[in-house]
Amino acid sequence: MLKYADDITLLVPEITDVSLAVEFLHIETWADSNGLIINTGKTKELVLRRSHPNKHKLSQSLKGIKQVQTTRLLGVIFQSSFSFFSQANAIYGRPM
After folding, report:
1. Claim: this prediction has a pTM higher than 0.70
2. Which residue of 29, 41, 54, 60 shows the fewest CB atoms closer than 10 Å?
3. Does 45 map to a domain?
């Protein structure tokens, strides 16, 4: 039988002493010690940032984890640009 760790949210600030990879390793270690598996196929990375004309797209931070621009968390649709356009469309019945 396999048990999966479900609904874990990891928030890592841009300026920090610990990298995203190290924080994710802590979660993987915790899951392993509690007999759980992290389903990396369902795991997503969403980088929240404001648009800036001089900054380029960030590269993927975690190996094997898909970086997305939009995701749903506890019923709320989040976009990397801090826009709630997709959430409003979902509420009013328009496609995302």
Report:
1. no
2. 54
3. yes
